[in-house]
Amino acid sequence: MNPQYMNQNPYGGGFAPPPQQGGLAGGHPQSAGQQAPMRPMFNGQGNTMPHPGPSQPPAPYGNMQQKVGMPPGAVPNGPPSGLGPQGDPYNPGAPPGSYQPPPRPPGQQPMPPQQQYSPVSGANQLPGQMGGLSLSQAPPRPGMPPSSMPGQMGARMPGPAPQGMQPPRPGPPSSMAGMPPGPMSSQPAGAPPMSNAGPPMSNAGPPMSYAGPPMSNAGPPMSNAGPPMSNMGTPMMNAGPPRSNAGPPMSNAGAPMMNAGPPMSNAGPPMSNAGPPMMNAGPPLGGPAMSNAGPPMSNAGPPMSNAGPPMSGPPMSWGGPPMQNAGPLMSGPPMSGPSPMSMTMPPMYGTGSPTPMQQAAPTSNMPPYIAAQHAANAMPPTGYGPPHPGGQPAPPPGGYGQQPPSPGALNCQPPAPGYGQRPMGQSGPVPGQQQQARRLDPDQMPSVIQVIEDDRKNRSGLFQSTIQSSDPPLVTTDFYTEDQGNCNPRLMRSTMYNIPCTADMLKQSHVPFALNISPFAELHPSEKPLPVVDLGELGPIRCNRCKAYMCPYMPFIDGGRRFQCNFCHCHTEVPPEYFAHLDHTGKRMDYYDRPELCLGAYEFIATKDYCRNSELPKPPAFLFMIDVSYNSVKSGLVNLLCSRFKEDVLAHLPKETGFSESEIRVGFVTYAKELHFYNVKSNLAQPQMLVVSDIQDVFVPLLDGFMVKLSESEAVIDSLLSQIPQMFADSRETEVILGPVIQAGVDALKSAECCGKLFVFHTTMPLAEAPGKLKNRDDRKLLGTEKEKTILAPQSGFYTKLGQECVAVGCGVDLFLFPNSYTDVATIAEVPRLTGGTLYKYSYFQADLDGERFLTDLTSQVKKSVAFDAIMRVRTSTGIRATDFYGNFYMSNTTDVELGAMDSDKSVTVEIRHDDKLNEAEGATVQAACLYTNVIGQRRLRVLNLSFNCCMQLADMFRSCELDTVINVMSKQGIRQTLNGTPKMVRETITNQCAQILACYRKNCATPSSAGQLILPECMKLLPVYTNCVIKSNILQGGADLTTDDRSYLMHLVNAMPVIDSACFFYPRLLPLHDVDMNSDSLPTAIRCSYERINDVGVYLLENGLVMYLWIGINVSHDWLQGVFGVQSAAQVDIDKTTLQHLDNPLSRRICDIIEKVRSQRHRYMKLTIVRQRDKLEPLFQQYLMEDRSSNGSASYVDYLCHIHKEIRNLLS
Fold first, then answer.
1. Exposed/middle/buried for 1132, CB within 10 Å: 0-12, 13-18, 19+?
2. DSSP class of residue 380?
3. What's the CA gap between 365 and 816, in Å, rounded?
């Protein structure tokens, strides 16, 4: 048998006509020749599933969605116009249109022959690629004898059961679906039967068609629990044929159940004495009692008592149809920590088709659901060999995580509403709640941590990006790329690397085909910078028709005199200066000498034809605009900024490789209710201040001396920075302006005819009478309601228009906010959103507590290598086209993405759709070209190429999906829907998409099996947990502590996140620090984000790229506390500190090094918040434990997986 996982274009156009140039902003009485009144400067006097709601008007993010229309006469996928010398606004002389761009109880009957089937042959198409998550029995493979060798079951690490769980009880082996009673076979796929496999058992058991009659002794009735168990769902008639080949029972598991309750003489269908009295049994039929599953969910159906069956009310709405055969069996590697009694029965790991290891061995005269309870008590939860004495499971052969997945099954039932989570820091059962029956064991579900660690183990190191290569390593894996024709995955990632040939196949899969493009992402230290190609006056070589740039996919023909475009198939003459002969393979003789012919990513130096007004650009400028109002001065911001500005900021201005100093020009503006410009020309002894009080029609009072080179005016700038805090120390201005400040910066750059960035340091909502004045519209009660979009969308179009003006002159805006109250981030963040800028928010800023964080962020933002005045176009080969765009940018047409500035931590997401059938032999290609100005004022063109395979089988597509990118795309789609729909509709849409994807795989790719099985594709076995993380995240729904501004802020950040950041944001990293390896320099292995994984004697570090928490258990070691904090107990730890003191001992140094290393991996400085167990801040920490229920009622991982399975069954039925 073959074991298989059962889970198993830049650019024509894009720039508006250049604005009118000429001196100062026009329309003001003061012309360029008039000087604003000057006065002596330093005179000692100055100083955030039912039905969607009604349609809503489009929201601001809506303008990012662009539908590509085909203009008359345009070539498919070709842009409407060309950029550069062939027909674009830069070249008015170009001709128009030149740019075209599974013991039978007594009385039961065996399954009819027609229900005994073999797996379809198609299942063998996915060897070793799909992982299975089976919820019920699977049919046996006919003719296969039983196996009794230790099986390759999903292993669990040995260890004590969690507190509050019942100890294991001895009992006969289980007959539940897929639960082997003894050691499982470890023979390899396709091997002959094992000699010690044992004879087939004659009473191996019929299908579990009587799995759910009422249990008269099962416990007190449940008031709203639902109908008798016989009606809990469709009988498992398809659960598989008799288990004739299931193997002998375990030698140590066949003892009678001395403590199992009443005799089981009536083990047939009536099941009147079917098991021990379930006085404390929780949900019936082995359903998982969610003893730690948190508060009831809002959509969990009618409340249920803690009693067992019989049941008399309607079924639970959350669980849907009874899930007697519907529990998930997880795919993937073994998880950590045994919990023998926390689940109905342990799930096994499945392959693509049923094998003998999937068959359940009989338990004499035991009904199936009773056998499930014994299985959980008498066997190792994941089937690794015989149990240790005392019932603990043996460790897996070869160690933790070494065994490949193997088949099995799990019967589960969704948790009853109302099963609360154990209070934090408390062991044992929940107070006032009876001991619950076993529930689904999260250890048996796919683990994010296990997948990450497996990928790191198997795929770290070199990755070769060959043409039409396979999917790259995960973003969490430390790898470096060797470019062999496809661009580095750090620069461009796809949701899939094997594209369905037809639009119908892609639509049927429900997997979005999209690219996440980060053109300027930081490369690995082992990777070389992108090569720069300088062709002189010839400029970049490109196709005459679609204007695509030369790339490795374009073959040369006619002896090298022409090349064929792989995007539009047009033949283009090779310029004489670029000609080279071909070798015997048809490659140019200089193939390996030219990056554009052999690499997937490279740069061209652009000519004047690619510049505004056909003039080479000037070096860019940085303008620093400082709020000097009362709040800014009182918080210490002004003093901190000016005292540290030179050494922490100006000393790190970006410079080009090989240059000794930065060519960036700098300028300074202060403001409150009026604007203060500073002349810092090098020949001045003291800086001069020019005041602009007319903020209704702002203008720039000077050019010469306003933007200067640092090295030339260093002394004057030092003097300015030393005197600004003195001059505004007595400021009493509480009302500030913002719109005119940004407008002035734009006008200054426009007048200087250069691009650049504005760094705006702002404290409060702009309430002063000036353009851009806002009103307070905060209403946190609207968050989570159908009206929340009214406060998450801009209240006016002023800042949207202002952002567009910034883009037109190549100006990016980085906005640093220091609010003490509501500032309407949804509105003012339009400027950094449209310009590709960055938004930072430091609520209740205090210089002594938050200063280091702020300065670190500012320094990082200043020294990044930035692309100014950028425009990007995505070209695709025939049959596909770019349709929707997501991110923080501006689009003036349907093809060009325009940004005032773009840096390494920004990305653009492009959704691609079919417009024709693809050829499986030819594949498909995508080229993203970004035209930009670098930090020395040189115009360059960065080209990124990616090629794909095409397929006619959905299984091939599912095998090549990249889940982290899929989640990144789904989150951005959710943000856009939030601004146009209702929160419930958004969450329902995301959940439905998850269910549709898994249902499509189940229907089209998985081996036919019982409807009670949840089957997951290997590459997407984490889809349910990640989808639940997106739904629970603060971008779609926040807790009671989330403000309106925080919701808007997070939406802004996620909208432009690259995949590496979004992966950690949605599933935070939780690192144990109490048992770190003192002899290692690497980070400790992360654990799953659940409170169950946390021990009160431990210390844990949690981070998601934006926040960092250090959680300290109440019983942590005194030695650890003394070594790190210098105190003897957790109660003595100062939780108000945001940094750890560096003590002179190895433990302190190791912990501090871990924290610094984590910070260095993120783009933003994460403030450390210390949380003690059971302290008032602990709920803030708990909201990031994504596998638990949330305080806002969001489902836990277990709950959500059961819900997804119900949705899949509904779709398949």
1. exposed
2. -
3. 71
CA atoms of 969 and 513, how far apart (whole Å): 9
Nearest alpha-carbon partner for 517 in 924, 1023, 1063, 946: 946
Check residue 865 and give its pLDDT.
86
To 5 degrees, how large is the angle CA 212–CA 217–CA 220? Answer: 100
753-812 residue pLDDT tens: 999 999 999 999 999 999 999 999 999 999 988 999 999 999 999 999 999 999 999 999
Token pair of 286 as six digits:
């082995």
The type of residue at 940 is: R
Integer CA distances (angstroms), 68 to 565, 775, 807, 1055, in order: 21, 37, 22, 21
In the structure encoding, which two tokens stand for residue 1147, read together? Answer: 């433990």
Which residue shows structure tokens 């590697």? Answer: 333
Q: How many CA atoms lie within 13 A of 322 on its CB side?
A: 26
Burial of 850-889, coded b for 16+ CB within 10 Å and e otherwise, reads bbbbbbebbbbbbebebbbbbbbbbbbbbbbbbbbbbbbb
Q: Is 897 helix (H, G, I), strand (E, B) or coil?
A: strand
- Copy the structure tokens of residue 584: 């015997």
Q: How many angstroms separate the CA atoms of 558 and 719, rounded?
A: 67
pLDDT of residue 1002: 94
Q: pLDDT category, 56, cuts 50, 70, 90?
A: very low
Q: Which SS3 state, helix, strand or coil, does residue 455 take?
A: helix
Phi and psi angles of residue 967, each rounded to the nearest 5 degrees, phi first: -65, -40
**Does residue 172 register a pLDDT over 70?**
no
Which residue carries 């795929």 as its tokens?
Answer: 459
Q: Report d(CA 289, CA 283) in Å as an integer.
A: 6
Q: State pTM to two decimals.
A: 0.70
* 3 state DSSP class of 668: strand
Tokens of 227: 């109908």
Average pLDDT (651-673) is 92
State the number of CA atoms in the 13 A half-sphere of 223 facing the CB: 6
**Residues contacting 82, CB < 8 A, separation 6+:** 11, 12, 13, 88, 94, 98, 99, 101, 547
Average pLDDT of every residue of the chain: 74
Tell how strand 867-876 and strand 811-817 pair up: unpaired
Say which DSSP state 155 is in: -
Angle at 554 between CA 551 and CA 560, to 5 degrees: 115
Task: Give the separation between CA 618 and CA 451, rounded to whole angstroms.
Answer: 49
On whether the CB atoms of residues 542 and 613 are closer than 8 A, the answer is no
* Cα 814 to Cα 713: distance, rounded to the nearest angstrom: 24
Q: How many angstroms separate the CA atoms of 817 and 842, rounded?
A: 6
Residue whose token pair is 């990012």: 64
Report the 10 Å Cβ neighbour count for 1142.
Answer: 10
> From its phi and psi, is residue 272 left (phi > 0), alpha (psi between -120 and 50) or beta?
alpha
DSSP string, 905-933: T--EEEEEEESSPPPTTT-EEEEEEEEEE
The amino acid occupying position 770 is A
Q: Flag the least confident range among 72-81, 123-132, 179-188, 1017-1026.
A: 123-132
pLDDT digits (tens, 9 = 90+) for 1170-1183: 999 999 999 999 99
Identify the CA nearest to 133 among candidates 1001, 970, 953, 962.
1001
Distance CA 933, CA 931 (A): 7
| Residue 169 in this model has a pLDDT that exceeds 50 | no
Total number of residues shown for the chain = 1213
Rounded CA separation 694/844 (Å): 31
Q: At 179, give phi and psi (nearest 5°).
A: -105, 100
Residue where the block lists tokens 């603990």 = 392
The token duo for 481 is 């790329």
Query: Percentage of residues in the chain with pLDDT exceeding 90?
Result: 59
3-class secondary-structure state, position 311: strand
